[in-house]
Structures are given as C-alpha cells and as structure tokens.
Specification:
The protein is mainly beta and 668 residues long.
Length: 668
C-alpha cells in the first residue's frame, strides 16, 4: 500500500482520510496452531531489514523463534529457532550491533527445573549464530545465573563503547522464606560486542541497578542515549510508581544531577532513581514501563552528538489514578542538559516546558484494560509511535491501538491521530485491529526504519476461534520521505605528484543530514579513478576535479586535486634545474598540509615553522637529501607534538645556501 495512497478506514471510528502518515494492512509474520506471544522487533540499518523474535510453543514447549522481515514488510526466509533448549524460554528482547551487523537476543531461561536465568544468543544478519566463549549447544550463553528466580529482561547497545547492558528483575535479595514478592530488585550485566561479560565478569554476581527493602521492582526496560553516552533504565514498583535510573557505560549508577552514586561495601547506600510516575494504584500488571531516546541509532547520530547540549527521552506505561478507574496509557518526557562536564536530568511537561516535578500526561484514556505499551522514535518526523492492546473486558476481546507522539518546532508535545495530523484528545486514538476474538491478548514491539521513515509494529493476536495466537506486523508510514540532498567527497582537496595515488571516499546525505546508502559513480580529470575511488594523478601539472555522482538523481560531490612536478622540466624523471619551495597544499588546512620542494643537487635540508610573532614552533632537521623533488607532511603540531592553535604560520626552507618562505593558514 503506497504511503501516498488515499485510504479509507471503516469501523468504530467512522471514515478518515489518510495522507502522508498512514498504515498498511496486517501482514502475517508467523502462523501456527500453537501460541506465539510477546513479539519484539529491532531494525538493522546495515541491511535495511528487521528481525522479529517471540515466544513460540509449536514444539510443545516455549522456545524463542525469529523471523527476518524486509523493509517492505515481506518475509526474508522462514521462521527459525533462536533458542530451542530443554525447558521453557520466555520474554525475548534484543539490541542491534551495527559494527558487527548482528543482534543480541536476551530472554528468561528456565531449562534448569524450578529456577530461571537470563541467557543470550547472538544472531548474525544472515540467520547464522555468533558463538562466543561459553556458548552451549543451543547457541546461548549465560548472562545471569544464581540460585534465585530471575524474570523479564531487556537490553540496549552502546555504539560508542561497543557494549550491551542487559537488565532484569531479580529475587536474590528476597527475605529468606518470604515468597511474598518483596525484595525484588533490578540487576544488570555489561556484555562486550564479542559476548564477554564485564564489570563484573561473573554471571552469578552482576550489577545492582535498583534495590529497596520491602518493595518490588519489576519488568525493567533500558535504552541508550548517544548524546549523554549512558543507559537509562525504567521500572515499576509494588507501590505503583515508575522510576528511572541512569547507568554509565562502565556500570556506574548516576544520580539525576549527573554525579556518580557512591557505594558502600559493594552495596548501594541510597537509591538515586528518578521519579517518573507518582501514582499509587497502577494495577496488578502495570509495573512495565518502556523508554525510548530521541537519539536512538541512525547513521549520522555520532557526528550530531558532538554539538548537542540537550537531549530527551520518552517513557510510557499503563496506570490509573485511583482504584475505580480503568487503566490508561501515560507518558512522561525526561530531559538532559549539559552542565560543565556532566549532564543533569529534568522533567518536561506536555507543552515542552521544563518542570521541577513529575509532569506525566495521558496518552489514551479509553474504557477497558490496556496491555503494556511499547514505542520507538523516528527522527525524520521527530515523533514516537506508541502501541498497545486494549481489552473490552479483562482477558477477552483484545484490540490493537496506536498513537503518534509528535514534537513540533517549538518543542511542544502533541498527540497526533494516526490518520490525520493535528492536535487530538486522548480519547480519539484510532484502533488498528478491532477483530473480536476471545483470549486475544496482545503483546507487541515497535521499531523504526531510518532509511524509509517507517515504523514496523509486530503483535500477537488470535485471528480465528480454532487457532491460538499468531504473529502479525503493520507498517506505519511517516510524513517526511528522506530525499538525497548532497554527496560529500573526502578529502575535499589534496596534493599529489605525477603518478602518485590517493584514495577518495564518498558519502551521500539526505535533507536532514543523515547518511544514505546510495551507489556512487566516480569520474576524474587530470588522472584516472576506479570504481572504488582510487585516483592516480596524470603527467600534467595543474588543479583537477574528482567527482562522485549518484547516477539516478545526478547529485554530485566534487573534490580538487593539485598535481605537481618540477617546473620547466618536460621529462618528469629529469632532475630539477633549481631550488624551489612550492606553496603548501592544501592551504588553509585543518589536519595536515604538504610541503614540497625541489633540490637540483644534494643538499642539507632544514625546515622551520614560525608563528606570526616570529617564534620558532617546530624544526625539522632532514639532513643531506639527494637531488629531486621531495615533500613532507606537517600536521600542525609544535616541537612536542602538541596541536597548535588556529592562525598564520611561516614555513622556512633552508637547503645549503638557498632559503625560501611560504605562508600556511591553520584552521582548527
């Protein structure tokens, strides 16, 4: 279904006209007579495809299954077992590692009778498995294994430090003999991209993320923020609150003000958690909250991160304000501002204003009993897509709903109807699947495609009375379609001698400055260039152009190359006729510049660099050099190798009795 098509949705909401934003019909991901539940999905920007995983009971037990899905919603290959070990496996979550082009899937593992652990499986983009040290015959390795019950995990990947953080609920501190669901904490484990446990390196120890006496911290979720370079963990408590905890890439807990939490004897002396919801009646299954960062991974995010002084996250959960109300879907924006070398967290209300206290808002207040929500962020429309199931009565007649949370240019959060852009009330959410089937419970996951600006939501649902639950997917289209805007060639200019070679690279960018994967065609003047951008200078001196062009759009990027050889010499292999210092190139320069010079005879060579005040900042004693054309690269450093500041510098060549000066401009 085209994102530009005119669609008409019939049902309980009447007829709505769709343009720009809209959604596809339901797509079948996995269909079986047995139950398939709690699907999750993650996007792979390297392959422009998704991986969906879920609990699957087709073999008379609960295993973890997966399915690759193309960006257009069609299936890639067949369902496959991610982990099919003895005993049930539950609650799969995953994160993607773009450097290694693979996913880490984590899940509850009950293969040891009467006790649960947290295990992980690395799935490569082609469906094969990466098996680090300690991997068993089922492709899995232990993340947490101790003598207590462990449950409901989540995982995120730090692309700067190349490390995963897995988190889960944990009963290891429950008072002995209580069995009262008290003393349940949140623990975590850092895992390298190669599957090594770190800080600590022991699956029986792990990192305490949240702990408090006589409370129950449950169903944690974790996201990674590129701007702050830290993880953010959210979880619910038995008091009905939703809390958030900052964790850095080394496993240290961070206070809301940005200071590192002091620990005493390996145990937390205080709880630094940030209050996200102050409700006291969130219901028996409302502990789950989900969080997403406005800086979730896309191709150019690390370059953007360097100039950002603020960033945000969105938390969503189900809850109610008092015990007589139906459950609702709630949200809270969390902001972070740079302060000196750290970051301080604060609250943002629905209108985009910073507040000193919790300022949560209702996303949906429909009648019924919603299932826990999930969400993902799309940077092109600067919006989140939130999805959840909703029961007409508890346990039956489950429908699927979705809502867009947009942020306009003045940073005001709006509720956007899925089928018509505009401010709407929290009760006007459009139902996506209103099939009425008993026992139609809904679990779901949402991911965003950074190349096509689409969301893909996967969910489980009963489609007929003689089946259990299948896995489906729906595509949600964004308003902004990424368009190729420019091609950059690197280096943008360079210097080389006749017959020498240099490697050029090209990168295409869309109209928001994000990298795009498009084929580039190379061409050159003054030399030859191959399909990989490898340029060889010709035998004629001068300044020439190197061009990389997207053939379909015609958008091109151009670089300049200066080809030089001894002046006045027809035969490039002949010796120079005179001493000569060429103008350095490039000039001005940022990282480095080439200093080239001719020697007609053997000469003792010295090159000095002066600042504008005449002070010598560097000296190169090159000794006796033979006749010919020589060059050296100066990288803008002083005698001690320290970078010099921006400014004008003089290059002084001494060769026997010959002296010459050239002016170089350094721009940092």
């Amino acid at each position: 279904m085209s994102r530009y098509a005119l669609l008409f949705l019939m049902g309980v909401v009447g007829v709505s006209l769709v343009w720009g934003q809209g959604h596809s019909d339901a797509l079948v991901v996995s269909e079986a007579l047995e139950a398939q539940v709690f699907p999750q999905i993650e996007y792979n920007p390297v392959e422009n495809e998704y991986l969906a995983v879920w609990e699957d009971s087709r073999d008379d037990r609960s295993d973890i299954y997966g399915q690759f899905i193309h960006a257009d919603g069609t299936l890639k290959g067949d369902n496959f077992a991610v982990c099919s070990a003895p005993g049930p496996q539950y609650w799969p979550r995953m994160a993607f590692d773009p450097d290694n082009n693979r996913f880490l899937v984590v899940f509850e593992d009950w293969r040891e009778a009467g006790k649960s652990d947290i295990s992980g499986v690395f799935v490569n983009h082609d469906g094969s498995f990466y098996e680090p040290a300690g991997t068993d015959e089922y492709h899995s390795f232990a993340i947490c294994s101790n003598d207590s019950n462990i449950y409901t995990c989540s995982v995120a990947f730090n692309t700067r430090e190349n490390v995963f953080l897995a988190v889960w609920g944990d009963f290891r501190n429950e008072p002995e003999g209580e069995n009262s669901w008290t003393g349940a904490d949140v623990f975590g484990q850092l895992i390298t991209a190669d599957g090594e446990l770190i800080n600590p390196a022991d699956p029986t120890v792990n990192i305490p993320v949240a702990a408090a006496d006589w409370t129950f911290e449950s169903v944690p979720d974790v996201t990674y923020n590129h701007i702050t370079n830290e993880f953010f963990v959210v979880y619910g408590t038995s008091f009905g609150r939703v809390l958030g905890q900052r964790v850095d890439h080394s496993g240290q807990l961070i206070q809301p003000d940005g200071s590192v939490l002091a620990k005493t004897g390996g145990a937390m002396s205080v709880l630094p958690a940030m209050m996200i919801s102050g409700m006291f009646n969130n219901g028996p299954d409302c502990f789950q909250a989900r969080v997403a960062s406005r800086t979730e991974f896309h191709a150019n995010s690390l370059q953007k991160a360097a100039s950002r002084d603020t960033t945000e996250m969105q938390v969503v959960w189900k809850g109610m304000t008092n015990e007589n109300d139906d459950n609702e879907i709630w949200g809270q924006r969390i902001g972070f501002a740079r302060q000196d070398e750290g970051w301080a967290a604060f609250y943002i209300d629905k209108d985009g204003a910073m507040t000193e206290s919790v300022s949560s808002f209702i996303i949906s207040e429909q009648m019924g009993w919603p299932s826990p929500p999930d969400l993902a962020y799309g940077q092109y429309d600067d919006e989140y897509l939130v999805g959840w199931g909703n029961y007409a009565e508890f346990g039956v007649n489950a429908d699927l709903y979705a809502q867009r949370l947009g942020i306009n240019p003045v940073n005001e959060l709006l509720l956007l109807d899925d089928d018509q852009i505009g401010t709407v009330s929290a009760t006007e959410t459009i139902p996506i699947d209103t099939s009425i089937h008993e026992n139609g419970g809904i679990g779901l996951g949402v991911a965003h495609n950074s190349k096509t600006n689409e969301f893909l939501m996967v969910y489980n649902h009963a489609d007929t009375s003689d089946r259990d639950q299948n896995i489906y997917a729906i595509r949600f289209f964004g308003s902004h379609i990424p368009q190729l805007a420019q091609v950059q060639v690197s280096p943008s200019d360079t210097f080389c001698l006749t017959g020498e070679s240099v490697q050029f690279t090209g990168q295409a960018f869309d109209d928001l400055g994000d990298a795009m994967d498009v084929p580039l065609v190379w061409s050159a003047k003054g030399g030859s260039i191959d399909s990989a951008g490898f340029y060889t200078a010709g035998d004629t001196p001068g300044t020439y152009t190197i061009t990389a062009t997207d053939e379909e759009s015609g958008i091109a990027g151009i670089a300049e190359v200066t080809v030089s050889w001894p002046a006045g010499v027809a035969d490039r292999d002949a010796l120079p006729r005179e001493f000569l210092l060429y103008a350095n190139y490039p000039n001005p320069f940022n990282a480095s510049t080439v200093i080239a010079y001719d020697l007609p005879i053997t000469a003792r060579v010295e090159i000095l660099i002066y600042n504008i005040s005449g002070k010598t900042v560097n000296q190169y004693l090159l000794g006796d050099l033979p006749a010919g054309t020589h060059r050296m690269i100066w990288d803008g450093v002083d005698q001690k190798g320290q970078p010099l500041s921006s400014g004008t510098y003089l290059i002084h060549l001494r060769a026997n009795n010959y002296q010459a000066l050239a002016k170089a401009v350094l721009l940092r």
